[in-house]
Write a structure and sequence with these properties.
Layout lengths: L10 H119 L3 H9 L7 H19 L2 H17 L1 E7 L5 E5 L2 E5 L4 H12 L8 E8 L4 H21 L5 E9 L9
Parallel strand pairs: 1-4, 4-5
Antiparallel strand pairs: 1-2, 2-3
Length: 291
Amino acid sequence: MISRRRLTFQLTPLLDLLLIVIFAQFMDTQETTARIEQRSQQQVTQAEQEAKTLREEQRIAHRKLAELNRSNRQLLLDAMQAEKNAIEIQKQARAKAQLTEKQNRELSEQLEQTREQRNLVGEMVQQLFQLPDSLLDPLLNAKPDPESEQTKKEIERIKKQLQELAGGKAIDVVKHFLTYDELTKRSDIWELYLTENGVFRLKIGDQSAEFRADSPQEFVDRFYAVYKTVPQPKSLVIILFSYGDARASLRFAATQGLPLVAERMRTDSSGRTRYEYAVMGFAPESVPVSP
């Protein structure tokens, strides 16, 4: 007779083992899930960053494109304006060239007219200097001491100069007067005339003054008083003294007083103005002719 054995299973250890296995699988699943989520989150973050970078690059590209468009538009406008300016400058240059040509033509015509007028004036002045001896001699011989050697030499010099002007070319006559004109530009000419009734008439530019003087000192004082009433003269003043049929004592007062008053005026101007004088001699007093 076969004996029967009873199998006895201890369920508690098996259940514990099962729970351990299940928990281990659960933990592994959790770790795997966490790694997957972390990796997914990183990929999402990276994708978002890349998307943000791409959007920024697109924004920069759009801005540069807009700036490029504006720059191209400005360049086009500048090119159109430059072309317009070039056309305008070309028109102005053409007009200026035409104006210059016209001005040159007018200047040439004026120059030709001026030359003709200059030659005409020179010829007229030549004729004016062709004075007959019958008219010239009384004027020259009216100088004081007409028989003295100095007076004769001065008369010969004046006659020679008149002959040279009368016989010279028109251009030489004009140059002579231009030289005198340049002298008057750089200096003041004061005209002093002693009338036959003993009155000194001093003409300074547009001003004129008269005074009497019987002695050199009185002449200096009266002349200097007139000088103080006129504006500041140029750096050179030339006093031309001539006289009519006046007394010799009055002529003496003037010729002796001129160097004194010239020095006095030079000192008063602190040397800024030089005063020179020249005795022109006898000159008949001109009488105004009624119109």
